[in-house]
User: Which sequence fits this backbone?
């Protein structure tokens, strides 16, 4: 399983666009990139998943460069309710029996 | 459509006791995974159940055991509780057949061992 590296914390202001970058130098060909959001004392919530280029949904955008060694989660116009820990995960989602490997995440303040 | 549910919400036990936590997966899901999350840390994978069998296991001792029922719900059992077992226990469900195996998490059970 590819190891991920992301900043421990980030500060932001309401209305600002926030970009959290995750490094995954050893990503494998079949690996997908998945981001989860977690509020205190709650389970992680799936935000977005992608394989390459750009993925957008109603919550966020995920930018993945051609070499796939990093990815950037973009949250448009954050509010206080976006204060949470954001986890970047990398793994082969098509193998079944997928165990998710979480790092320490990025605390968005 | 109900999401993943867990019970109880909170639990307080003493060292040496045994505990059972319960999880009902999201409708349409057949695979259940359990994670332990210590304060300030990311969730750590305990094990995963599919077709009532343990399919994968993380680095946890045999004191941690589980079960999956025919209706896909699952239990996590922890014997001989230690102070270090105090954590948020998370259940996640997914659908094995086809497509990307996105896991959806429940709200967790907060276990405190005194």
Assistant:
């Amino acid at each position: 399983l590819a190891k991920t590296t992301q900043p421990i914390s980030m500060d932001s202001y309401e209305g600002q666009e926030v970009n959290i970058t995750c490094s995954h130098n050893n990503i494998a060909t079949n690996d997908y990139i998945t981001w989860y959001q977690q509020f205190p004392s709650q389970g992680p919530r799936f935000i977005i998943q992608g394989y390459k280029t750009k993925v957008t949904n109603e919550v966020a955008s995920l930018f993945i460069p051609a070499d796939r060694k990093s990815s950037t989660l973009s949250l448009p116009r954050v509010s206080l309710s976006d204060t949470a820990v954001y986890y970047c995960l990398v793994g082969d989602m098509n193998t079944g029996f997928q165990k998710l490997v979480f790092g320490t995440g990025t605390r968005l303040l | 459509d109900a999401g993943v549910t867990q019970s109880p919400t909170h639990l307080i036990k003493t060292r040496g006791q045994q505990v059972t936590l319960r999880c009902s997966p999201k409708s349409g899901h057949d695979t259940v995974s359990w994670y332990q999350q210590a304060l300030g840390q990311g969730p750590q994978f305990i094990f995963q159940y599919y077709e009532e069998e343990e399919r994968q296991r993380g680095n946890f001792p045999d004191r941690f055991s589980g079960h999956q029922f025919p209706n896909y719900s699952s239990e996590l059992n922890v014997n001989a509780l230690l102070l270090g077992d105090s954590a948020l226990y998370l259940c996640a469900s997914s659908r094995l057949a086809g497509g990307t195996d996105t896991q959806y998490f429940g709200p967790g059970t907060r276990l405190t061992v005194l």
Observations:
- Chain A has a mean pLDDT of 89.
- Chain A touches chain B at residues 32, 34, 36, 41-46, 49, 87, 93-105 (CB under 8 Å).
- Strands of chain A lie at 9-10, 18-23, 32-38, 45-50, 53-56, 61-64, 70-75, 84-91, 106-108.
